Amino acid sequence: MGGSFFRVFTMGLLPNDRDLTEPPEAVELVVDASDFRVKVVDLVVRLDHFLAERINWRSRNSIQKLIREGFVLVDAVAPDRPRGEGKPEVEKRPGRKLRHGSRVVVVIPEENRRQFSADAMGPIDVLFEDDEVVVVNKPPHVAVHPSGRHYTDTLIQRVHAHFKEEINRGDMAPRLCHRLDRETSGIVLIAKRPAGHTQLMLQFEGRRVRKAYQAIVCGVPTPDEGSIRSAIGPSRTSAVRLKMAVRVDGLESRTDYAVLEEVGPEDRRHALVRCDLFTGRQHQIRVHLAAQGHPLVGDKLYGPDEALFQRSLDGELTAADLMELEHERQALHNTLLAFESPASGPVEINCPLAPDLEAFLVARRGA
Questions:
Q1: Is 314 among the catalytic positions?
Q2: Which is the catalytic residue, given 130, 153, 181, 321?
Q3: Shortest CA distance to 130 belongs to which of 43, 193, 70, 178?
Q4: CA 221/CA 216 separation, integer angstroms
Q5: What was the pLDDT predicted at 11?
Q6: Residue 127's Cα: distance from chain center in Å?
Q7: What is the pLDDT of residues 284-339, one digit of tens each?
Q8: Candidates 3.40.30.10, 3.20.20.70, 3.30.1780.10, 3.30.2350.10; correct CATH number of 121-365?
Q9: What average pLDDT does the segment 260-277 reach?
């Protein structure tokens, strides 16, 4: 195991300064009680079960083989070692019990590394480019950056692969300026260099960037246009730690909306809604519209039952679940972004509704 293995381990999962056009030799994962929806003191999980939930480039049946062949290292915490030993050791027991805070390093076998390489990355749809920025149309089901569950073929890795020559020459170091949920499609702004990234982030922080989305919702909001200004904070009642909710003690939030179209039969109406964001809270559009009684079509977390969210993560959605959701992903698309490029000045990007969402509307127009 070479230097890149130890660099990945000591700096975390696919760190910012790593060349994303080259496959990593290893990834690090941290056992977190909140992922299992239990208290820290109550979490005890088998090593093979933990990895089976987080590795998508090995089958469940091969996880134990991976462990027994010495590809997995563990720095386990214990009541008398709450921070572990600080050094990972090879662990060949699939049934090794892990507690909250334990770190697990998985060395990626050679045969699995190709899918991390530039040649295995999907394409990018460039909507605008100048000397300082590139704006792309993110497809649904593509994560914007590597995370514990999704660390192959992410949007930023695709961008690195697309600009591999420029990056290798030292002419570019692409950085995301904002994020979209994995299921959300549409416009994403990326700075080509750190100085430009700093300028763009100041615009976001100063609320000088205009963002508009289109969403397909259940029912039809009334009135057909308005401003939702409910404060948003973490949900106190949900078992899902990332879920947000309208709360009087939350952060100031504002979404202006306008109904663009109504579709479907009278007893099952849907609406295409434009949403203009004046703040950028987590899940803001989804929370605001759901709180008005009009959740997004396909929303597993804020829709009919949040249990659908966990079943989706586990790959266990049934045909009945999909019928209830009405669409395989949340119907949300970033359709407009207006900002000032450090190179070109004022820029306004428009992006048509994603094909799968347009198809949903077409089918309901004829119903």
A1: no
A2: 181
A3: 193
A4: 11
A5: 34
A6: 21
A7: 999 999 999 999 999 999 999 999 998 887 778 999 999 999 999 999 999 999 99
A8: 3.30.2350.10
A9: 96
